[in-house]
Design goal:
Layout (H helix, E strand, L loop, with lengths): L1 H15 L4 H5 L9 H20 L4 H4 L2 H5 L14 H5 L6 H20 L9 E3 L6 E2 H26 L1
Antiparallel strand pairs: 1-2
Helix pairs in contact: 1-7, 1-8, 3-7, 3-8
């Protein structure tokens, strides 16, 4: 798990490094997801899901990232199901804002995963589904989602030239 989360970290930093706020906000066809939105969203999902599973506070609110980003959404927003207008509202003043938030979530994730005994992986963390979601499944889901969105962001960066 640690290795998988470290791979996400590498891709996120590679994608964001050196880009301007305008490049981060670029939506290739005017409606696609920007790099800013993709990185913010994958970080929000990881923050939300890991905090819930580990019974921790989300970095988004506990460390004031919600205020630093200044987005026009409620603090519980993760980007899931956002429409075109909301996606366009996710802009950042710098890539460091994105990676700063991501790095704190990443560190909290690693701290949790490193001390996690194997026996915890079968603990039920979400009973809204049938079958109920086990912790191990939730972690794999977060990793999968992160890598997909990080890959999408890398594709957009490649199109930027």
């Amino acid at each position: 798990m640690v290795d998988a989360f470290e791979r996400v970290h590498e891709v996120v930093h590679h994608v964001v490094d050196g880009l301007t706020p305008e490049q981060l906000a670029t939506r290739i066809d005017g409606k696609s997801n920007s790099i800013a939105w993709l990185i913010w969203h994958l970080t929000r999902i990881q923050d939300d899901h890991l905090a819930d599973a580990a019974d921790l506070e989300q970095i988004w609110t506990s460390k004031g990232w919600n205020e630093r980003f200044g987005l026009p959404f409620n603090d519980g927003e993760t980007g899931y199901g956002m429409g075109d207008k909301q996606v366009a509202e996710v802009t950042v003043s710098s890539g460091e804002l994105l990676t700063g938030y991501f790095d704190e979530v990443h560190q909290q994730t690693l701290d949790y995963v490193r001390r996690l005994p194997d026996s915890e992986l079968t603990r039920i963390v979400d009973e809204r589904f049938d079958p109920p979601v086990q912790l191990g499944v939730r972690l794999v889901s977060v990793i999968s989602d992160d890598l997909q969105h990080a890959g999408q962001a890398a594709f957009v960066r490649g199109l930027l030239g």
